[in-house]
Each structure stands twice: as C-alpha cells, then as structure tokens.
Amino acid sequence: VQLQAFGGGLVQAGDSLRLSCAASTRTANTVAVGWFRQAPGKEREFVAGIKWNGASTYYTDSVKGRFTISRDNAKNTFYLQMNSLKPEDTALYYCALTFRYGSQRQEEHHWWGQGTLVTVSS
Known about the structure:
By secondary structure, the chain is mainly β.
C-alpha cells in the first residue's frame, strides 16, 4: 500500500485547510488511519485517528474541537480538516495505517505517506 498526502500550504492564523491522503489500494479501507505531524526541531506526534469504517475517531488534546478526521472508502481517501489554525500547528503532516485502532504509537502505524507541509503564519 502506498499513501500520498497532499493539501498543505501557507495560511494565516485562524484559516482552514483540508489535508487529503490517497491510498493506492482498497486494502487501506479495512484498517484504521492516523494522522501525525512533525514540527521543526521536534519529534513526530500523533494528531488524529479514525476507525476503518469511520464510526469512531480520536484526537490529541491540542487539536480537539478544531480538527476533524474523516474518510471516504469509496475513494480510498482520508482527510484531515483543520480549522482555526494556529502557528503552533506548523508542521509536516503525515498519514499512516494501523491495525490497532486507538493507538497513538508511531511503531504501530505503517505505510507512511511522504508528508505535506502546513505553515501557519501569525
């Protein structure tokens, strides 16, 4: 399975962006998806996850109420809607698959996409 994340860009604080993650095969539709991010000089951190059927989601505390993860299995595509963006959201954003829904551990996520850069100016 190959994943390709896109949709990043340069925005101002308070703006919105929607990231997309396209999977190369339908296999991705049978597992959970996670979004991670890595800010300059920091370790990669978990952002949001969604169950294989979209029935359940979970978020890291810093994005709750602002970000929404979703998926369209008919299109083999997963999304991260980001609203009310803050400068501290600036990072390279990655999507990945996991067999363990609820996990926030990088080691339990696989088939990482190449990342898409989000820059939020103040």
